[in-house]
Every structure is written in structure tokens, then in C-alpha cells.
Design a protein that fits this description.
210 residues; alpha+beta; six-stranded antiparallel sheet; three-stranded antiparallel sheet; 38% strand
Length: 210
Amino acid sequence: MKKNKGFSLIELIIASSIGLLAIGIVGSVFLSGYNTANKRSLELMLQQDVNDVLYLIKQDIVRAGYNSDSDSSYIISGASNIVTLWDTTSSSSLSTDADCITYAYHDGNKQYLNSIYTKSGKNSSGHSVKILRYYSTTSSGVDITQKCKDGESALDQNMINVTYFSVNESILSSSSATSRLLTINLAASLEKNSSISTAKSVQVKIRNWQ
């Protein structure tokens, strides 16, 4: 009668090593795919948030100078243009690399003074972040001195850090009218992972209501 033999210790060690190696390779591929998909998801979320806020800013700026009660443009008291660009560090007006944009419009019931600007602050975790703020008021008697006041955060400051914001102005002239073109640049990164970042820009033509 033939005696059956089992695996030797060496064979068992070799088989176990090959199995562990295969499991390690499969696990590494899975984790790599998971991390890539998670990073891509965060990138898309950040890009969507930045796109959304730029779209809302553009839609609002299009109203700048609108005056339902008159044929002429509505200019806020103390301003010389429908839209004014500012440097918040010196409170001086600019035409390029401004970090605050101020404008107004009147819808027949209320005057709206709006400002979009960046400001350094802290999130709920106490971390220093740069915030894109949106300030709006309909108070009576508002003027250009109320620009760039504390407003609502346009992006979630607990998740997103604004790394760059600027507004540049250029003049558009034709034989019939002169208008202005604004280029708004916005760059941001995730507060907990600065390697995930995005930079977007949008152009807005200021309507010549006059």
C-alpha cells in the first residue's frame, strides 16, 4: 500500500510567500485606485465650487449700473465709475490686480451696493486661511466708503483656501460707445490638502447703460 505524503515545510513556506505577495500586489493596486479616485473626486468638487462662485459673481456684476428709474447709469455716491476696483491694503483705486470690486444698481425699490474681495481670516479650526467675501447692503444712504466690508464667505472657508484673487480692467472702444471688460481670476486649494488646487478666470463686459 502506497503511503500518501503531505506538503513539506519548504513547499508550505514557498506557497504562503507567493500567496502573500499576490495579496500585497492586489491590495496595492486597489489602494492606488481608491486614492486616485478620491483625489479626482476632491478636485472635481473644488473646481465645481470655484466655477459656481465665479458664475454667480458674473451674473451679479452684469447688473452693475442698472437703474430702473432713469435712462442713465446708476453710480454709487462717491464713485466715478459704474464698477470700481480697489486695493484693500491701501484703499486706493486700481485698474489691474485689484483684490476688491465694488458696484451698485437700483431695481426700482432698493439700491444695492455689492463688493467682492479677499481677506485673511481663520476657519472654525483656528487655521489661517484667505477668504473670498461677498458683501451686500441695501441700507439707505450707502456710499463708496462702505466698500470691502465684512461680508459672507463666498466659498466654504473650512474646506477651501483662496490662494489668489484679482480683477483686471481693460477699455473696449468703438465708434459708437466705450465699455469696459473685467477679467476676474480666482485660484483656490483645499484647506486640508493644498496639493489639490485649481485656478479659473471669467470675463465680464460692463454694460453701458447710458
